[in-house]
């Protein structure tokens, strides 16, 4: 089914299109845009202006509420909301611990930079004179001998760059 909105002015989006686009942009800017809105099959999101399957926080909240308040089975509810059971349990625990903020998407990957020790920095500095690539290899060998740990080449390059500036 297609919905065509009549727009008397050529080239300008209709007011409904602008609202939809601005909400999508707002959700995307805060990281709350649901990457898989079509996976949400719950009846509450069908044909409703208030419930929006693109709003990831709203979808997650309704899923947790459906199990806790309405007493619906977890497996069935998770399937209807397009997530796995382990994801439901994780979100439920986060909601219990942090409230609605626990339902916001978290940053993936490492949360901070990898720091080098003083001995490791001295090892990096020792190979800095040999040029960026060769110096990186020399520094890596020196560093491994100094701290008995192998770091990624990019970590050493960053340390060398900091040392130079």
The percentage of residues in β strands lies in under 5%
Sequence of secondary-structure elements: HHHHHHH
Largest sheet: none
Q: Tell me the domain tally.
A: 2
Helical amount: 40-55%
Number of strands: 0
From the alpha carbons, calculate the radius of gyration and give it in angstroms: 26 Å
Q: How far is it from the N-terminal to the C-terminal residue, by CA?
A: 60 Å
Q: Pick out the low-confidence regions.
A: 1-10
Overall pLDDT score: 75
The backbone outline, from C-alpha atoms, is elongated
Structure annotation, total helices: 7
Which structural class best describes the helix and strand composition?
A: mainly alpha
Oligomeric description of these chains: single chain
Account of the protein in words:
The chain has two domains: 77 residues, no CATH class; 47 residues, no CATH class. With 165 residues, the protein is mainly α. It is elongated and about 60 Å long. It starts with 14 loop residues before the first helix and ends with a helix.
Can you describe this structure in just a few lines?
With 165 residues, this protein is an all-alpha fold. It has seven helices and no strands.
Produce the secondary structure layout.
Layout: H1 15-29, H2 56-68, H3 74-80, H4 85-98, H5 118-126, H6 132-147, H7 153-164
Features:
165 residues; mainly alpha; 2 domains; 7 helices; elongated; disordered N terminus
């Amino acid at each position: 089914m297609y919905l065509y909105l009549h727009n008397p002015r050529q080239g300008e989006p209709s007011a409904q299109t602008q609202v939809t686009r601005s909400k999508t942009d707002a959700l995307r800017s805060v990281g709350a845009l649901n990457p898989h809105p079509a996976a949400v099959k719950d009846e509450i999101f069908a044909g409703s202006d208030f419930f929006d399957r693109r709003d990831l926080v709203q979808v997650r909240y309704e899923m947790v509420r459906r199990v806790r308040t309405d007493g619906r089975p977890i497996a069935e509810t998770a399937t209807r909301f397009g997530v796995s059971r382990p994801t439901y349990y994780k979100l439920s625990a986060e909601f219990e611990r942090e409230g609605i903020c626990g339902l916001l998407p978290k940053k993936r990957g490492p949360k901070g930079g990898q720091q080098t020790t003083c001995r490791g920095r001295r090892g990096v500095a020792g190979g800095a004179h040999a040029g960026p690539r060769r110096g990186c290899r020399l520094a890596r060998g020196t560093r491994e001998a100094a701290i008995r740990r192998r770091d990624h080449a990019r970590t050493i390059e960053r340390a060398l760059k900091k040392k130079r500036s």
